[in-house]
Structure formats: C-alpha cells, structure tokens
## 1
Amino acid sequence: MTLHVPFDNSYARLPERFFARQPADPVRAPSLIAVNADLARALGIDPDALATDDGIAMLSGNAAPTGADPLAQAYAGHQFGGWSPQLGDGRALLLGEVVDQSGQRRDIQLKGSGRTPFSRMGDGRAWLGPVLREYVISEAMHAMGIPTTRALAAVVTGETVLRERPLPGAVLTRVAASHIRVGTFQYFAARGDVEAIRLLADHVIARHYPTVTSPLGLLDAVIDAQSDLIAKWLGVGFIHGVMNTDNCAISGETIDYGPCAFMDRYEGGKVFSSIDRGGRYAYDKQPDIAVWNLAQFATCLLPLISDDRDQAVDQASEAVHRFPQCFAECWQATFRAKLGLNTAEANDALLIDSLLSRMEAGGADFTNTFAGLANGTAAAAFHEPEILDPWLEDYQARLDRQPGDVDTDAMTRANPLIIPRNHQIEAMIAAAVGGDFAPFHHLHAATIQPFNLTDPDLALPPGPGQEVRQTFCGT
Ligand code: AMP
Ligand code: MG
C-alpha cells in the first residue's frame, strides 16, 4: 500500500510574498491517534495508507509526500480589536491542496508542525489537549451541519511540549475549503499592496464563490456566508471565543477551535475564554463582532470596488449594513427549524426570544431544552420548570396555526441530542494525557452522530463540581 495524495497546489502558485515556503520540523517518535477514514476517501486518499510509516511521516511533518509544497501563509489581523500587522502561520504548514471527489478544492494543513518565520516567540508546536479538542469539536460541528474545517488525522509526536507544565506534543491535520481569512486581505491592505489584494480576491472568487462577478459581489457573498454561519453557531449554543479577524474564514467555515465551547445552561452573555475578560466575544455578541470583522474586510476591498473612494465607501457600507437583516433572517430560519415551525409569522422572533429569556431565568440546559421540545420533555431541562409553562401555551397556539403536523424528522435534525460538552472534553483530554485514548474515541464516535442518543450519559449536563467555567487558548 503506497501513500498517494493527489496534490494540486494553487495557493503556492501565487506570488512569493503571500507565504514562506519551508519544510516541517521533524519529530522524534510519531504515532497515530486517529485517522478520519471517510474524509480521507473523500479527498482521494487511501485511509489505510495514512496509517503506514509513510502516512504517519506525512501527518507528523517528518516527510512531505510527493506533490506537497509546504508553506506558511502570511496574514495579519485584529486581535480583540487591537491591530497586529503580521501574524501568519506560526505553528501550521499548508502541505498543499487536493480537489476532492465532489470537485471542491481543499487545503491540507498540519497544525503543530514546528516553527516558521511567523512564529514570533512561540515554539510552533501544539500539545495533545487542543489537538483532540479540535478533532472532536470540528467533526461534531460538521455532523450537525455547520460549515467548518475538518480533522483528517491526529498524531502524537513522542516529544514533550512545555506549557504550564510538560505535556505530550501532537499534530493535527486540518482540512479546509481554504485557510484564507479576513486577516489575509488585511495583511496586504496594510501594506498598500493593491495588486496582491486583487490577486487574492480573484483566487477566492474562483475557489469559493465562482458565480460572483465583482469585488462588491464577493463582499456580499462573504456577508451571506457569515450570517448563515453565526446563526448556526447560535442555534447550537456555540461560542467561538476568539473571533479575531485572523480567525474569520472567507469561505464561511468555522476555523480555529481555541477556547471555543458549547453552553450547558443558557446564558445570553456567556463567555468561557479566560482571555476574553471584557466579554467581547460573548455568545450574544457574535453577530455584532461578525459585522465588525466584515467591515474590516470591506475596507480591504475598497480599492477594488471603485477608483472613486467615496463611491467605494458608499457601496461597501451599504453592503455591510445589510448584515443585521441578513443575519436576522438566518437566525429566525435556524430557530424556526428548531421549533418545528414550517411557516413564518411576524412575531416568531418574539416567540424565540421569549423562550430564550425563560431558559435563562429558569437555568435551562440549552441543548436539552430544544431536544425536549419534540417530545414534551423540554421543561425537564429547567431548574425551575414552571417558568416554561406560559411559553408552552403560546408555542402550542403557534403550532396550531400552521398547516399539517410538525415534521418531527426535520425537527430532530435541527436539535442535536449529544454535543461535545466541556466537562466531557476535559475528561477525555485528561485521560489521553494519561495514555488512555478510549474516552476520546468514545466521545468522538457519539458526537459525530449528534441526533442519536448512543450514550445517554453524554447528554447529561455537568453534575455538581463537573462544570467547566473557563476555557483556554491552549497554544
Ligand atoms: P490563534 O490565537 O490560535 O488564532 O493564533 C494567533 C497567532 O499566534 C497565529 O499567528 C498563530 O500561528 C500564532 N501561534 C499560536 N500558537 C503558537 C505557537 N505555539 N507557536 C507559534 N505561533 C503560535
Ligand atoms: Mg488563528
């Protein structure tokens, strides 16, 4: 069995100033934790070949397979609103791209593969915790129908990474529609490199939005994609935690699973990330932050939109101002599906908001409230179940006004039963650090079938003392 990856690398054909070409830094004793066989096959890669010595050499960065052209991408970004003119892949390498079985071009990237010219003070490495976290959460997001980067494989390196303490090193192989971010455009905009912005925009249009015919059309398409994405996050209680412009993918995929988390008990202003002290990236702030990020993207595109600066600003502003309406429509569609509503009424947003405020007042588990709506057990997710009663009457009246029965299958697909809960993730990581990967495999297997109750224990909110209050970037 020989490893063959059908590379076709388009980003590497862009000008040299878009990246730093370099090999990965080898590791001592890599061994495989997991391979995503279905994804491998979709990419035209034999999953069994990934488990051979050659496969593990690729997945650990010890040898680049034929056709790979490893490079670290340059980008900039606003981090917590503060401008960083140069970030770039400091612990990641793009091995190359493949065109998958459905004709879509996908990046294959190693994360944790060693230092690059963009590493600054970092060691270029990743430890096991964030690698397993991203593996589980990104695949769960995909299974729930949320656009996301994917996990192709995880390996341990056989080396130690020093964080607060020595921890096992690991490498994640990530697959994405592309790793081009708002921050990639900002990198060139900050340097006044209009030619590069034009090349990047053309690259992105060809790759992600082939029906788009103008820079303004690209802005509109990215606004639509982000509206859809953020609405879907809110629909599963997901808090990204670091919505910096360098973590905002132009493709509309969720990218960079750092301190992200799903809520257990619903709280509109919920924050998990230890470094998000001001709550900039709180659950209910995510749509506002998306607008902020899109405004940065729009600013980068101004020189392409029109030679007349005022006209460009007017057109870009108009596009960005479309976001709230566009997002509201996506959000209502997401939550209507969760409630099993197949028609639209003017007061639906009020009905949804009323449910959410009762959930907050009643200490309700987000996932289990929605999962319980289909079978009449929603109140059981509340600490104070009677808070839900008046709402259930309004809800029943609303259901009675729509034609036909509730499509319970559709409602099931809108309301996951099992999500990767924080306390389960932490327990899984602790076990893996101790050498036991069974909880990782078990949690992964359950969360990629989120609509089946394969393990009822995994649907339980954290018990006393199990609740995770903070998450960490983990770099
Ligand atoms: P993130 O917060 O994960 O989006 O990363 C922000 C920036 O820090 C990116 O440029 C990363 O490549 C870089 N970075 C994060 N962790 C490391 C690390 N361990 N070594 C080098 N660079 C890193
Ligand atoms: Mg990042």
Note: The first strand starts at residue 19 and ends at 21.
## 2
Amino acid sequence: MSPARTVRIAPSLLAADLGRLREELAAIEAGGADWLHFDVMDGVFVPNLTFGAKLIETCRALTRLPIDVHLMTVEPEKYFDSFVKAGANVLTIHVETAPHLNRQIGRIKELGCSAGAVMNPGTPVESVAEVAADLDLLLIMSVNPGFGGQKFIPASVDKIRRARAILDATRSRAALEVDGGISRDTINACWRAGADTFVAGVAVFQAKDPAAEIAALRALCAEAV
Ligand code: DX5
Ligand code: ZN
C-alpha cells in the first residue's frame, strides 16, 4: 500500500446545524476539511428525506470545498444535470438503484463531474468490479444508509480491504471512501484497510472544536497508529 496515499476528511452536512449554515461551512473549511459530503435521500430508497439542488447551490455559494454528493435515491439519473449545474463536484450512485451502472457512470462523466459508486452493507463489493477502472470514487457504506449518528459495522473493514484489492487489480485510481460511524475509534482500521477518504458527520459537526476533530481524525491515518 502506498504510504503517499492522500487522506481526505469529508464532513457530512447531515450533522450540521442548518440554521447556522454559513458559519458551519466556514468552520470546516478553515478547519482543514477536504470535501463537503452532501447526503441526498429520497424517502424511497432510504427511509428519510433530505436535500436537493437548491441546497447544493446554496452551499456552492458559501464554500470552495468540493461538494461530494451521495445519492440515496431511486432513478438517480433524474438528478444528474441539475445537481452538476448547481455545483456538485462528485456524484456517487448506489449500485442497488443503478441497473445500467456503466451507462450512468459514463453520463456523470460526460457532464464534467467525477463519478462514484457505492453499495449498502449487505451488497457485495464485487458488484462494482466491472466498472472499477472507470470510477473516480468507490464508496463503502459502513452503516445502513438513511441516518447519521449510527454505529460503525465492524465487517466493513474487511470489505474495504477487498475494495482496495479490486481497485489495485483494475489499476483504478479511484478514491476509496468510507461512510458511516467514522470517529477516532474507527478511522484508523479503515485507513489501514486501504481507505483514503472519510465521511464524518456527528464526529465533526458535533465536536466542540470541529477543526481539532478534523486534525485528530487526519492524524489517526498513519500506518503506525
Ligand atoms: C448515512 C449517510 C452518512 C451520514 C454519516 O446514510 O450517508 O453520510 O451523514 O453520518 P455519521 O458520520 O454521523 O455516521
Ligand atoms: Zn453519505
């Protein structure tokens, strides 16, 4: 595993205080966050309803951080054009909702956006093997999607290891991201398994000092820890 692997910390907007959106975004940007993770839930694929293009546009105007959009929706292709137009930098779609994964990944790239694929904890990581070489990002869910603040599923660590093997075998340069229950207790095992990009909702936004928390999470991404 390359020691030069880049670490990215991606705070999830889901855990932010939206009444203080401007301040929350400023705090994570100044605090060293690498991406803003933006969870789109449609109340159909997952039992919760969240944000759309309008809020991407609002965030785009408030931060320079890349906006990493996680689409937990059926028929995700409905949103590609408007979300890219609103300022999304990465669109990640669930394999469970993407029967034409190859075509959908291609369409996201045609729009000039980075393309990611993600699967639920119960879906095999091999479901992305055929498109791995085309991906800009592979996301492993370490909780069942739908809510922030859930407990990390320990079996995710081995799944990250298998995801890393698929990316290496296909010479994919995709970022390997993990989402759900990431904290000081879980991040190092994920890093050691081969992840490089870490979504953190509650851990960052509910910390007393988000900047210190981002720094602490990043510091835990070292082989020796
Ligand atoms: C869950 C979302 C996550 C969530 C993570 O469905 O995809 O991005 O915000 O929240 P934490 O880090 O609090 O588990
Ligand atoms: Zn997410």
Note: The pocket of D-xylitol-5-phosphate (ligand 1) is lined by residues 12, 14-15, 37, 39, 70, 143, 145-150, 179-182, 199-203 (CB under 6 Å).
